[in-house]
Design brief:
The complex is a heterodimer of chains A (178) and B (188).
Chain A lengths: L8 H24 L2 H21 L6 H18 L1 H13 L14 H20 L2 H12 L4 H8 L3 H21 L1
Helix pairs in contact in A: 1-2, 1-3, 2-3, 5-8, 6-8, 7-8
Chain B lengths: L6 H8 L5 H9 L1 H23 L4 H8 L5 H20 L14 H23 L2 H14 L2 H16 L13 H7 L2 H5 L1
Helix pairs in contact in B: 1-3, 2-3, 7-8
Classes of the chains: A mainly alpha (178), B mainly alpha (188).
Chain lengths: 178, 188
């Protein structure tokens, strides 16, 4: 009978990476609105995890820690001036009206309407103030509770509720106008 | 609670906010419940779209399209300013070339120009020729030879533009003392 070795720190980091990498990348993509930047930031977050995991043993929930660090890393990325400039240049290189393979059945008109609706929705989401967008992402898309969101963003519960309500109203308006 | 909940209140309830009274009304009112469910479905669709689709490029472009119009304007202004300062700077006395550093022929030409300018313009304006001559002749009648020589020297110097001193410089140099030391000259 072989004796099982206790998981090492590397094993624990790997487990967290397997479990959380997609979620963190998605979170970063929603906050940054850019796939490539989101992947870069997510990698930075997991590098920090490896460093922090080696020295800090007082953290209770590494999942919550990852969320908090990811949100802060996204904020840092958005604050940097070069990011804004680079994002502007890259946006001009993108192709407008990029064709997509339809994933749902339906007529071309329905697809066009659906695409237009998506675009409208993304535009409204992108137009949200940063704080409202963060609250919306964490509360509605990541499924965090009001208390967890408040802890992650460093806000009060009431503030989280207010930001969420404003964000939802904005999104509802956008969908109603489309 | 009288009447049904407003859309705004229902949205608050969907967002996890709202009072106990509002929640109890919602639990007992079919109309409000159906409205509430409609909102829940609507946000479910919104969340699914945000979670399953990529942000289209046009979204980024819509916000970042603002051109950096001021960059060429600032660059052009800076160039114009540089050009003006360079052209204007060449004409200032501080930036004028040093006479000593010029070639000998140029230096001679410059000295001639200066002499001609002093003789033609400055000397007649400051020391009218008649006054100088009258002064010299008047002085020669009262002064001894040395003083008349000094006055003659002074008058000749005035033509070259090297007048040794003026009234404010009296007693300031040995040359001035020669003229001003005389009691007769003071009377004059």
């Amino acid at each position: 009978m072989t004796e099982e070795k206790p998981p090492t720190r590397d094993d624990e980091c790997e487990r967290l990476y397997r479990k959380e990498s997609l979620r963190i990348a998605r979170l970063c993509r929603l906050i940054l609105m850019n796939q490539q930047d989101a992947e870069e930031v997510a990698q930075e977050v997991f590098l920090r995890l490896v460093r922090e995991h080696a020295v800090n043993h007082a953290i209770g929930s590494w999942e919550a820690w990852l969320t908090r660090v990811a949100v802060n890393a996204c904020r840092d990325r958005k604050r940097s001036a070069w990011w804004k400039l680079w994002n502007r240049n890259r946006a001009s290189e993108d192709t407008e009206g990029e064709l997509r393979i339809p994933t749902q059945s339906g007529t071309p008109e329905e697809h066009a309407l659906s695409r237009e609706r998506e675009r409208q929705l993304w535009r409204a989401f992108e137009a949200l103030p940063p704080r409202q967008r963060e609250v919306f992402v964490l509360r509605r898309l990541e499924g965090l509770s009001t208390e967890e969101t408040a802890t992650t963003l460093g806000l009060s519960d009431g503030s989280i509720k207010r930001h969420l309500f404003l964000a939802m109203r904005q999104m509802q308006k956008a969908l109603g106008e489309s | 609670m009288l009447g049904c909940l407003r859309d705004r209140t229902l949205l608050k309830l969907v967002a996890g906010d709202g009072t106990t009274a509002q929640r109890s009304h919602l639990a007992g009112c079919h109309r409000c419940q159906s409205q509430y469910q409609r909102l829940v479905r609507q946000f479910h669709v919104i969340e699914q779209i945000l979670l399953t689709t990529d942000p289209p490029a046009v979204v980024v472009r819509a916000r970042e399209r603002t051109p950096i119009w001021w960059v060429p304007a600032v660059a052009a202004f800076a160039c114009a300013l540089l050009l003006l300062s360079w052209q204007g700077g060449g004409q200032t006395p501080l930036n004028a070339p040093n006479v000593a550093s010029l070639a000998p022929s140029v230096q001679e030409d410059r000295e001639e120009e200066i002499s001609a300018f002093l003789a033609d313009a400055v000397t007649p304006a400051l020391f009218a020729g008649t006054e100088t001559e009258q002064a010299a002749s008047f002085a020669s009648r009262f002064l001894d030879d040395d003083h008349s020589i000094v006055l003659a020297e002074d008058s000749s110097l005035s033509h070259v533009g090297e007048w040794p001193c003026d009234e404010s410089d009296l007693f300031a140099s040995s040359e001035c003392e020669l003229v001003a030391g005389s009691d007769t000259l003071e009377e004059f």
